[in-house]
Amino acid sequence: MSRVINENLKLGEVVSIFPDSTKIFNDIKIDYCCGGHDSLGAALREKALNVDVFVDKLNEEYEKFKNSNSEYIDWREVDSIKLIENVINTHHAYTFRSIKEIDELLLKILKVHFEHHSEELLKVHRLFGSLKVELEEHLIKEEKNLFPLMERYFITKDENLRVEVKKYIEETEAEHDGAGDILKELEEITRDFKAPEGACTTFKLVYNKLHDLEKDLFIHIYKENSILFQRV
């Protein structure tokens, strides 16, 4: 079988070629968003996985995906301005909505379940509070500073603008790493977002929403770090 995906490809490139690879990477905790610049082989070796076996499996799944007639967008082919619009209208909108919902629900279960799960819930509450502040400020800075500047650069190709945009990108990628670190702590404390045994429906819902937020942020950051920012 000829390999479309090989170990030398960057993780971001693998996701662009085979979007459903995100599900596989999520299952084994491979960071394709903030770590999108890393090679597939290096990421697999870090997880102590057999590179050849895993790459063969990825290619098999890619062939199934390709033959399934699934429609998908190759974001590498999308115009930069349209990609920015997609990030704002899809991912920013989802993140603002999601963190508001989680914030309210998390406070509710903290009150109701404090007696039996105080240690875990206090940690989750504090970490989510940090993540909420980080994301809200980050998204607003992107919408008000970075993206308008990028749009001007893509239109004018002004080299002075490019230098300014690159500074904003460095700051933005550092913030992506910071949010990723908080999510990793949340993963650990919540046992990969699994509510304690016997937890109520709302408790499970909060953890599911946290997990959904993480998965959307991974795609969101991948689009920025591995595609949009690379154009600058």
The average pLDDT score comes to: 92
Main β-sheet: number of strands, strand sense, barrel status?
none
Count of helical stretches: 7
Q: Span from first to last CA?
A: 36 Å
Q: What is the string of helix and strand elements?
A: HHHHHHH
GO molecular function: metal ion binding
Subcellular location: Cytoplasm
Protein name: Iron-sulfur cluster repair di-iron protein
Keywords: Cytoplasm, Iron, Metal-binding
Notes on the structure:
GO terms for molecular function: metal ion binding. This is Iron-sulfur cluster repair di-iron protein. Its main location: cytoplasm. This protein is mostly helical and 232 residues long. The protein has 7 helices and no strands. The chain has helices at residues 11-17, 21-27, 40-46, 51-67, 80-156, 159-189, 201-228. Helix 5 (80-156) packs parallel to helix 7 (201-228) and helix 6 (159-189) runs antiparallel to helix 7 (201-228). The longest helix is centred in the middle third of the chain and has 77 residues, at 80-156. It starts with 10 loop residues before the first helix and ends with a helix.
Features:
Iron-sulfur cluster repair di-iron protein, 232 residues, metal-binding, mainly alpha, 2 domains, metal ion binding, single chain, Hemerythrin-like, globular
